[in-house]
Design a protein that fits this description.
Number of domains: 2
CATH superfamily of the largest domain: Amino acid/polyamine transporter I
Helix content: 55-70%
Structural class: mainly alpha
Number of strands: 5
Mean pLDDT: 81
CATH class of the largest domain: Mainly Alpha
CATH topology of the largest domain: Amino acid/polyamine transporter I
Strand order of the largest sheet: 3-2-1-4-5
Distance between the termini: 45 Å
Largest sheet: 5 strands, parallel
CATH architecture of the largest domain: Up-down Bundle
Amino acid sequence: MQQTKDTRQLTWLLAWAVVFCDIGTSVYYVPGILYGNVGDDTPFFVLLTTIGFIPLALKYIEISWRNPEGGGVVSIATKALGPMWGCLGGMLITTSYFLTAAISAVSGFHYIGSVVHLINANIVLFACIGLLALALLNIVGIRESATVALVMAVAALAVDLIVIAISFWQFSPAQWWQALRSFAPGRTLSFRELLVGFGAAWLAFSGLESISQLSPNMRFPLRRTAKWAMMGVIITTVITSPLLTLLSINLLPAEIKATESERFISEVALVSGGFGLSFAVVLSASTLLLFAANTAIIGAYHIFLALTNLGFLPRAIALRSATFRSPHIAIGIATTVPIVVILATQGELALLGEMYAFGLLGAFVFSSLSLDVIRWRLGRRDLGFWVGVLTTSVILIAWCINLVEKELATLFGGVLTAVGMSVAVGVRRAWFLDLLHKVPWIERLQARAYMASEALVDEELRGLVTLADAVELKDLYPSSTLLAVRGENPRLVQEGIRRAKGMGETALYCVYVEEWPGLFAGDTPHRPSDEGVITLRSALQEIRGKGLEAIPIWTVSYNAAEAIANAAKALDVDAVVIGASQRSAFYHMLRGHVVKGLMKKLPHDCHLMIVN
């Protein structure tokens, strides 16, 4: 019970605070970025996108409680579309996290620079130093606290509301009328201009996906906690984002909007309430923005760890510091990429804002579409389902617009995602390991790691044998058939029994390969998994009483096909029997399977039999 209390600590209020600390930062830089694109029509486009934000936010409630393990787009896309699509969603959201860290750090120091003018000339330097400091804090083990998030969120919301209240209180009737009119376009917009502005304005709601990462920490009942937390996010975001955008465009002089676009909100506070209110905005905004940068770093390296656990990234990424036990390599990557982006763009917020769209909207599309697919499978055809489909269509349109219009975003996000997916596919298919294992000294170290693992077999498997043991037993229990098992498959075992009996033999070899990168996986030696032990014992039970002696073999390798082929050679069999995978054709196209490897690696006189 104590464990449940400790891990499920987030009430709806604390969950709201964590999400608002992320999504609430957008208002500090989005009005200035949008103003550079659409001018005085900025409030109209933010309001227009708010209409699409609300149904998407409601979908994230369901995404959160359907995935109590967390994982966000990775989990929901994996369940709905398959592991490779989940991996792709993870790459997209990681791209968004990189840009969140970069833009939050740059924007945070822009706000500090409005008070400490020395910083203005060195924004890029201070932003990079800030990210390095956050990386160090994460490696040492400092984590975000939900209580700290609550204090910061309440303080920021309070300052925002004070700015809004004071500004509107000072409005004359003419200014009220002008403000209301700015929620409508000030000129006739072409269809293309409407689409482009709509696509760009989604930047105002970045951070929405963070609630789906909090599921493992929310209190039960999860559905209610997620619902109330998101309702709080919707209400506070709808109040602050459109109204602060409206005030930025209506209160600030043209010359300020042209030269101070990085810190519109503090300038609004200065115009409405003087230096004191402006300083309060700077303090809350800069703190919240750096907090959001830290959240992005944490989110990025947690995605790395999730993809590593799924076998899409090298396990070295998940290695932990011997001193602090933190994933220092993952943290280093999650920090290095945003720093490189800041240096490459020289901290230009408009440029960073354009680059943001690819990963953000891509992750929104995959999350929303995946929930639609799950609802369809469950037989949902109600109004909520069709509203969800419409929401997905709207976000997809916005993403497609940005793919065409934001060429730099498409180039940056596309290249980063393509590199990430290439690495993921390469790791899953062992391309890189195949190359590395051709290096003699790596091969020797790998062999020692495997030998250390197999030394555990007598203790762990209780009667099951290693390949070396099976070779020693070959003269005593000869067989020409090697059964390669992966999971319980009675039909496969029966086929192996029929072949062995048909050949007049009294023994049947049965091998299970534990796929493990060994040298590159951190802790060695590798212990047999529960799946391996259960699979071999199940096969042993099937073969017993059939007039055959089963030789159940456990072995470990970075490549299953390589291990099975080596076992076939060492045992001098003339047939290897394996089961056909139930995976989809698309999965095989990306992942590869053992059949291709065996066709290349088996001896020419050894037959390969596949059992459906």
